[in-house]
Amino acid sequence: MSDMDMGHSAPETPRDGASRRSFIKGVIAAGAAVSSSAYLFRTNIAGQPASGGGERLISITVNGQVRRVDVLKQETLATTLRYKLGLTGTKLGCDRAECGACTVLVDDTPHYSCSMLTHTLRNRKVTTIEGLASPDGTLHPVQQGVVAEQGFQCAFCMPGFVMATVGFLKTNPNPSRAELAHGVSGNLCRCQDYDKILTALLKGAELSRGA
Ligand code: FES
Ligand code: FES
After folding, report:
1. What is the extent of the structural domain holding 20?
2. Rounded to whole angstroms, how far apart are CA atoms 161 and 199?
3. In which band, very low, low, confident or very high, does the pLDDT at 159 lie, cut at 50, 70 and 90?
4. Does the reported pTM lie above 0.85?
5. How far is the CA of 6 from the centre of ligand 2 (A)?
6. Same domain as 42, residue 60
7. Are 108 and 169 in contact (CB under 8 A)?
8. What tens digit of pLDDT does each residue of 108-152 get?
């Protein structure tokens, strides 16, 4: 995994509070929009070339827009989002349903996009981290909670945690700390600052209730 994909694309990680806050906000607003040649390379090894024979044209609704895309039978949603639609805010960590980095909402329910086949999602509604902010750029309350509490270190896992939280809050808008911890227990953080992450996500829940 390259430094760039671990969220280290900025020249230096800022040390003071204000610049770190700006740094995190920038990462969140952009959906940590970095691409990775390492991922592309791995994807090709896995037999999912960016284009080629055997593709089918399907329509899926992504972040409120109907997208027409050619997909292979074995192509995962994470691959389609990242390498065909350019939505690199969705991260690939384990690529085998263990870490939650690739979490997106499908019809408002969190799913691991590395473990869903895109062709099964015809006419379904997919929401990625890029689709959370308002058209005027206002961050989603859960994203605002992350900014306020500076809840992540490298932030590679952040989009997955945020999407899992947004989905969880649709069913339980006022969770206890323990309930929210259980709600995002399908997401792992390599930096392992879970206490701080939970504080940030709870702040997001609080802001969501006020929104
Ligand atoms: S990349 Fe999908 S669960 Fe880890
Ligand atoms: S993996 Fe670094 S903050 Fe979670």
Report:
1. 14-46
2. 12
3. very high
4. no
5. 8
6. no
7. no
8. 999 999 999 999 999 899 999 999 999 999 999 999 999 999 989
